[in-house]
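Retry 2 of 3 after timeout on previous attempt. Resubmitting structure tokens to design endpoint.
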């Protein structure tokens, strides 16, 4: 029997009350006439330095509740999309007003009556310095405005290059394409409505030509697998309607979570079955498969939109159903009776309207990961259903949600990286890559003209060794070891086809079976051949061994990135803080030697917000700094007697202030000062715990030595702690502490205040599922001090490498193997020239 490997599920459910309680209340400007505030003296956006703006209601919103674009002092290549936040005290009957002015000049654009916290200007701005502000009326009837935020459109913006509306448009363009260059929703909706069905067949293509291309040697293994799965689907019973089954979906406990997961796997698996049957049926002229696919579509159309698979009960199941109903409608449009077509459209419309109602939450919570994913599903569905008479509003809805989707394409990272966990970077990849393929085939818009799509493979290469089993460094579900093997066959293949980057082809082909006998394949990879029938780019291995993203605060430093059993140091200090699938682990490191994990960030992911999951998101379970018995970042209750479960927030953030490669050295510095604070138990405001929390990491690849320098200060004397975790028990003696995993090992040498070392395999809260033990080690300073400067030396394989360390106050000077000095002092790092 040929089983289908299904995508693991994101089981995050946001607690709205939690997301609000710990945030500062917005400080409003004094009541004044809006026009008077807009006339205040402007400052220049084009100056060499950018002074900090005074706080306003927008900057005082919790970070995860605002999406400020363009941010203050941005330098852009074209007219931006504008977005801000849903003001909590806005009069419900009032709207927003947006004004743009020249720096030092007058208003060049002004619009009132804006219903939602975003706007795409109806005109293009020329090169120059600008400022923008937003105003509204609050519940007391008083006008409120933001500060004037500055931005510059560089002279290079005077260009005509825009994103193309053609399925054959290449992602290899040299023009600087931005999201603001993408066509607007009205244009896309008009383009889609003009397409003949099936829209899942690229304009100008045919199933006959698609079949010919799919039979080419490079594509045949994927086609063979999809054929085998279609044949397997013929042997499987049509899934029964889950309503009345007695199972209870939900998120309250493990049993409910498992029931929900099972239901999503059923609906997702059925979507794959229908896609495989329908495509192979069309390519091969197999009427049995076509009839089976059609019957399965009609079966799902009979499931109640308000039952177990409703948006309220299981939004992931709901979206799988309405998307595959739309695909079936499109592929079988001419084979359906009027009654059957109406039955499908009525069912999917009811489901889509449930989702679009919930998408209003994105105005208040723009980083809601379920909402972002649902938005892609809705947009793709509307592209396929637009024009059906039973869904007359589909075209206008497509225009609206396409426009909204543009604001979400780069929300977790504009440079192609993904800042919400490494495992979830893969899961996001499995959604965005086929979405981009579908958008290109159906509408002709090539999202791979954007760096956020084109460069999406870089982070995966950096954090997941090719053709190797290895846990992830950061975020939820770190314990999953087979991300590359499971998702690269289908999704890296589809990505490389769209990115045209030879490194993506290399990463895909690092596992030979991905090409010769893949374990997964997507119909969208074959459908994409109708838009671009070229062979995959010839593989070329990456030459840079280090990867940095200052946008997402992630770094990966390798001795040789091309090796599966590579030695790597990973680092995180991110603006996304401890929010959603991210942990309170700013300035944490992870260490892998010879492909084997030695220093890991600890904990498991039985399900989102399980008691164990909530507990192990804490800094004390990361390879990071804590104090006074495990207190760390984003504490839920400032002043509590013992450490708490971290508060979900982007406000408790870090930043990557240095990221560089210099010869055989790689260096990063993270500033996590803002992360070390807690929520006031009464006022819900942030209470700082530390005044500085900086970590610098230098990897000396020539000598196999990694230097970890910590500097922290506090207004109160603290008992400082350095936490390290490993899959196995540490070996500790009077000389050093060693982490060992098979043939790999690393020795930890300490230079700084006198410390004691303890370790345990105990958890504050045990995992809800059976999992291997992990060891939690801690170096604790014996004396309480207000300042802490410490160097940890990691010696790969515990080699006897001569290391000389000189300390003077906060300054640490290190010489390895008699080489030139490496210097640390507070925030400064100096590497040998």
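Retry 2 succeeded. Sequence:
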């Amino acid at each position: 029997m040929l089983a289908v490997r299904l995508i693991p599920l994101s089981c995050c459910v946001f607690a709205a009350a939690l997301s609000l309680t710990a945030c500062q209340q917005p400080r409003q400007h004094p009541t004044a006439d809006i026009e008077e505030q807009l006339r205040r003296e402007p400052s220049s956006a084009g100056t060499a330095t950018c002074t900090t703006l005074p706080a306003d209601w927008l900057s005082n919103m919790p970070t995860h509740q605002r999406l400020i674009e363009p941010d203050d002092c941005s330098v852009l290549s074209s007219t931006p999309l504008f977005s801000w936040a849903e003001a909590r005290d806005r009069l419900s009957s009032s709207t927003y007003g947006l004004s743009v002015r020249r720096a030092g000049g007058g208003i060049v654009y002004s619009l009132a009556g804006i219903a939602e916290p975003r706007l795409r200007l109806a005109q293009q701005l020329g090169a120059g310095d600008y400022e923008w502000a937003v105003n509204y009326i609050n519940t007391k009837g008083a006008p409120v405005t933001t500060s004037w935020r500055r931005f510059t459109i560089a002279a290079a913006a005077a260009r005509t290059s825009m994103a193309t509306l053609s399925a054959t448009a290449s992602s290899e363009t040299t023009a600087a394409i931005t999201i603001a260059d993408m066509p607007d929703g009205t244009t896309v909706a008009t383009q889609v409505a003009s397409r003949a069905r099936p829209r899942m067949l690229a304009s100008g293509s045919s199933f006959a030509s698609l079949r010919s291309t799919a039979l080419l040697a490079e594509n045949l293994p994927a086609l063979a697998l999809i054929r085998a799965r279609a044949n397997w689907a013929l042997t499987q019973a049509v899934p029964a309607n889950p309503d009345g089954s007695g199972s209870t979906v939900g998120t309250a406990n493990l049993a409910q979570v498992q029931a929900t997961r099972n239901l999503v796997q059923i609906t997702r698996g059925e979507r794959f079955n229908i896609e495989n049957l329908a495509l192979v049926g069309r390519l091969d002229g197999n009427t049995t498969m076509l009839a089976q696919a059609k019957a399965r579509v009609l079966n799902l159309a009979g499931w109640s939109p308000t039952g177990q698979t409703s948006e309220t009960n299981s939004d992931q199941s709901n979206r799988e159903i309405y998307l595959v109903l739309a695909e079936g409608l499109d592929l079988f449009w001419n084979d359906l009776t009027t009654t059957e077509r109406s039955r499908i459209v009525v069912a999917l419309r009811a489901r889509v309207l449930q989702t679009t109602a919930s998408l209003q939450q994105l105005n208040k919570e723009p980083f809601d990961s379920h909402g972002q994913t649902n938005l892609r599903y809705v947009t793709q569905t509307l592209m396929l259903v637009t024009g059906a008479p039973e869904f007359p509003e589909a075209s206008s809805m497509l225009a609206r949600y396409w426009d909204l989707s543009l604001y979400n394409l780069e929300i977790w990272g504009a440079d192609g990286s993904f800042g919400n966990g490494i495992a979830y970077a893969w899961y996001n990849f499995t959604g965005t890559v086929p979405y981009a393929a579908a958008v290109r085939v159906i509408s002709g818009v090539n999202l791979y003209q954007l760096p956020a799509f084109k460069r999406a493979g870089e982070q995966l290469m950096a954090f997941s060794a090719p053709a190797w089993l290895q846990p992830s460094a950061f975020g939820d579900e770190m314990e999953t070891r087979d991300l590359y093997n499971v998702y690269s066959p289908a999704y890296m293949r589809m990505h490389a086809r769209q990115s045209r980057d030879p490194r993506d082809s290399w990463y895909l082909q690092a596992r030979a079976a991905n090409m010769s006998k893949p374990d997964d394949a997507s119909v969208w990879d074959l459908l994409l051949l109708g838009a671009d029938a070229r062979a995959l780019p010839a593989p070329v291995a990456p030459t840079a061994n280090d990867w940095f993203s200052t946008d997402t605060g992630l770094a990966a430093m390798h001795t040789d990135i091309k090796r599966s059993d590579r030695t790597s140091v990973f680092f995180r200090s991110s603006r996304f803080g401890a929010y959603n699938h991210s942990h309170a682990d700013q300035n944490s490191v992870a260490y892998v030697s010879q492909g084997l994990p030695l220093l890991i960030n600890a904990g498991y992911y039985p399900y989102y917000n399980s008691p164990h999951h909530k507990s192990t998101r804490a800094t004390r379970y990361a390879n990071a700094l804590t104090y006074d018995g495990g207190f760390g970042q984003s504490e839920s209750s400032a002043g509590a007697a013992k450490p708490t479960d971290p508060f979900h927030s982007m406000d408790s953030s870090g930043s990557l202030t240095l990221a560089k490669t210099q010869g055989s050295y790689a260096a990063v510095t993270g500033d996590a000062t803002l992360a070390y604070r807690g929520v006031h138990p009464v006022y819900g405001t942030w209470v700082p715990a530390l005044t500085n929390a900086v970590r610098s990491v230098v990897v000396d690849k020539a000598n196999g030595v990694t230097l970890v320098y910590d500097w922290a200060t506090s207004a109160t004397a603290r008992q400082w702690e350095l936490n390290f975790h490993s899959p196995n028990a540490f070996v500790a003696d009077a000389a050093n502490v060693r982490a060992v995993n098979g043939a790999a090992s690393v020795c930890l040498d300490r230079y700084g205040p006198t410390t004691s070392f303890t370790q345990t395999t105990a958890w504050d809260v045990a995992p809800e599922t059976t999992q291997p033990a992990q060891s939690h080690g801690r170096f604790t300073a014996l004396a309480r001090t207000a300042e802490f400067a410490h160097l940890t030396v990691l010696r790969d394989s515990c080699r006897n490498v001569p290391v000389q360390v000189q300390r003077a106050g906060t300054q640490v000077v290190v010489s390895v193997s008699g080489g030139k000095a490496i210097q640390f002092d507070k925030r400064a790092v100096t590497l040998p020239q």
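Attempt log closed. Residues 568 and 592 are 5 Å apart (CA to CA).
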